[in-house]
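Running co-folding for 2-phosphoglycolic acid.
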Amino acid sequence: MAKRQPLVAGNWKMHGSRAENATLVNGLLDLLQPGKRAEILVCPPFPYLLETGRLLRDGGVALGAQSVCAEVQGAFTGEVSAAMLRDVGCTYVLVGHSERRHVFGESDELVARKFVAAQSQKIVPVLCVGETLDEREAGRTLDVVSRQIDAVMTVTGVKSLARAVIAYEPVWAIGTGRTASGDQAQEVHAMIRAKIAALDATIGGSVRILYGGSVKASNARELFAMPDIDGGLVGGASLKADEFARICAGAG
Ligand code: PGA
């Protein structure tokens, strides 16, 4: 089976200030253990991307954005293009985060177009998928996650996943303190991998699938020890340098 380098991504959401970001990034660079196996990524809000990139310098931490416009350029007030993200140093971008889907009404189709826009600028999309509590309780978890992945694959083809990351984030676990157990998460991760492997065995074996939803230093190791969990997408706990560094160490 292909060796997959773990990835731990911090999604800062709409938090931070120039001063707080400097404290967080400098703290993180001090605490991260050099030579650890996991790749580390931080995703600040748009206005802070350039400055955060400068703070990160060559500290071995990648820069990503939290969203991207599906359009290339033009009269789209308030939007940010993939070329702009590339220009300020982003190598990753989240697409389809549940807050974008559920708070801002992004459809599967729009998420697929954002995925394409990112890859057109050689930015790696982190495709977020996951079911709500109602969907889980109705036994529809695998259907929902499959539908969200199919929406992208029908547009771009399975090969595009060679240059993408998937993040499984059950909506009921995001920001709630209620984490999926290792077994609950593994079940969905294994389904996602099997689904992709059925179309392309190499890509199924190599695509990284992150878990997100109330990841903390205290539960990261259990989650990351699961065979199909290749790291995490971390919200609240990525805002504290020591906590995030411990999560990163758990994936190393
Ligand atoms: P959380 O957020 O870690 O605060 O639950 C995860 C996410 O939304 O990516």
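Result summary
The first strand starts at residue 7 and ends at 11.
The radius of gyration is 17 Å.
Job closed.
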